[in-house]
Amino acid sequence: MKQSPSSPMTLTCAPCCWGVDDVNNPHLPAWRQVLTEAAQAGFGGLELGPYGYMPRDVDLLTAELRHSGLFIVAGTIFDDLVSLGNRQNLLEQTDAICALIRQLPTPPASPGQRYGGPYLTVMDWGHDERDFNAGHSARAPRLAPEQWHNMVSNIRAIAALAQDKYAIRTVIHPHAGGYIEFADELHRIVSDIDNDTAGLCLDTGHLMYAGMDPVATLQRYWSRVDYIHFKDINQTIFQQVLGKSIRFFDACAEGVMCPIGQGNIDYPAIHTLLREKAYAGFITIEQERDPRNTASVLDDLTWSKNYLAKIGF
């Protein structure tokens, strides 16, 4: 959905709607298919997805984006943020991703938007002991103080490079199966990393998956929210996967994420809050799935877009 004249909110989508989360997955759809179907579903923009999925050739990707009438709203670092030994890799990713997205067609800005796009969204990932405990706050292990300090230090280094070299805003994304997932971890990361350094990308689905109320959490951290992700959760499948020892993306392959409006998240209440807060900027729809199950992507995205339009987005 392209931004309407009456709304400062712009809906975009992400390659994860096609199951694109790991660039090494052999079952990924062609990147041109993702661009084509994103445009067919009526979106003006989408996220870059994992670095290396979309072409790294700026001229080629720019031409394809313009042909489809699209822009890139954000790049993503989805990696181990905890280990100091991973610092160089994280900074190399930051450099490469920011250099690419800064040269692509610029996302439109809305009056009242805190920070213009594109953004760099950072998510912790790659820890089996957390992946198998996604959604289970009581049993999921927490980082020791030194490990937490290392993660904070890594995020600060990423954010400084993105801002100082590319003028790109870093947003921290709590994610199921990572070490920034649950309410205590969200509170702690906001306390330890100030707003001048990085903002938040809050994801309604990951908040719900982690046992938080999306409306209340958006309200609580509103002063830090620069960018928002929307997804919805099939309550029946959610209860089933919580009863299993299962990785987060295996739960997605079982269909735990569903089109917006078909799940357990109160989107009319979210719409009311965002209107009250005069949110201006981007909302990215995501519906993670197995990339071998992409036949319904266009129908699902169209459903989500139409549902959100019906309730006022």
From TrEMBL:
EC class of the enzyme, as a word: lyase
Family matches, as InterPro entries: IolE/XylAMocC-like, Xyl_isomerase-like_sf, Xyl_isomerase-like_TIM-brl
Cited Pfam families: AP_endonuc_2 (PF01261)
The EC number(s) this enzyme carries: 4.2.1.44
Record-linked Gene3D superfamilies: Divalent-metal-dependent TIM barrel enzymes
GO molecular function terms attached to this record: myo-inosose-2 dehydratase activity
Domain Xylose isomerase-like TIM barrel: 36-306
Domain of life: Bacteria
Keywords: Lyase
Entry protein name: Inosose dehydratase
Organism: Reinekea forsetii
Lineage: Bacteria, Pseudomonadati, Pseudomonadota, Gammaproteobacteria, Oceanospirillales
Encoding gene per record: iolE
